[in-house]
């Protein structure tokens, strides 16, 4: 705000009320002085303006968060062990379709026992091209390996968990539950 005298007043939330009082007092002085015909005989009003005193900052006590509880031994549920091969089977390396897979899809295949990796990779590719969101058979088959929940239970959401479920099914039943066990058009 600029006064008529050219003085610039800087306002903050603490000094704003004081500045309003100063402006009103200044306006009264101007009105009184302009109403008097003789500036020499006009009464002089002197206004004292108190220096604004900053308000004390609010202090808050912040307590340190409680330390996390000490770790306790937890026994993880045991699942059927899955073998992780050190190398990708030659038959999968030779298949051009398999060479198009993403790292996530390759990682899913690693959840199968080595003796089932080729067959389960072929089934996953033929059933859904490893699409974990695939729905087939009129809604009866779900996921990358097109598992039917009415026989095998709920199908997990992630490709990794679907591979683990398909491995459990194949470990107990072989590849018989899948009609694409011998391949499909486009494989190879």
What does this entry look like structurally?
- The chain is mainly α.
- The protein folds into two domains: 1-52, no CATH class; 90-173, no CATH class.
- Helices cover 34% and strands 2% of the residues.
- It is built from six helices and two strands.
- It has helices at residues 16-35, 90-94, 103-109, 117-128, 149-152, 159-173, and strands spanning 135-136, 141-142.
- The protein has a two-stranded antiparallel sheet with strand order 1-2.
- Helix 3 packs parallel to helix 6 (159-173).
- Mean pLDDT is 73; it is low at 1-5 and 80-86.
Task: Compose a concise summary of this entry.
This protein has about 190 residues and is mostly helical.
Q: Major β-sheet, in short?
A: 2 strands, antiparallel
Q: What is the helix content? A: 25-40%
Return residue spans where pLDDT drops below 50 for at least 5 consecutive residues: 1-5, 80-86
Structural class by sheet pairing and helices: mainly alpha
Order of helices and strands: HHHHEEHH
SS summary, helix count: 6
| C-alpha end-to-end distance | 81 Å
User: What global shape is seen?
Assistant: elongated
Structural Rg? 41 Å
Q: Find the count of extended strands (DSSP E, 2+ residues).
A: 2
Spatial sequence of strands, sheet with the most strands: 1-2
Average pLDDT for all residues: 73
List the domain count as a whole number: 2
Beta fraction of the residues? Answer: under 5%
């Amino acid at each position: 705000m600029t006064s008529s005298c050219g003085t610039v007043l800087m306002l903050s939330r603490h000094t704003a009320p004081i500045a309003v009082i100063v402006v009103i007092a200044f306006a009264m002085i101007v009105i009184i002085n302009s109403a008097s015909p003789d500036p020499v005989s006009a009464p002089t009003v002197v206004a004292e303006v108190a220096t604004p005193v900053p308000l004390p900052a609010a202090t808050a006590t912040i307590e340190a968060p409680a330390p996390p509880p000490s770790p306790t031994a937890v026994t993880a549920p045991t699942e059927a062990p899955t073998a992780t091969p050190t190398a990708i089977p030659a038959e999968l390396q030779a298949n051009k379709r398999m060479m198009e897979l993403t790292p996530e899809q390759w990682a899913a295949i690693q959840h199968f026992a080595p003796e089932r990796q080729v067959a389960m990779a072929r089934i996953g590719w033929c059933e859904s091209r490893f699409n974990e969101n695939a729905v087939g058979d009129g809604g009866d088959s779900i996921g990358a390996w097109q598992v039917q929940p009415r026989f095998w239970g709920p199908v997990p959401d992630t490709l990794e968990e679907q591979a683990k479920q398909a491995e459990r099914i194949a470990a107990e039943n072989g590849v018989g539950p899948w009609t694409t066990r011998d391949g499909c058009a486009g494989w190879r």
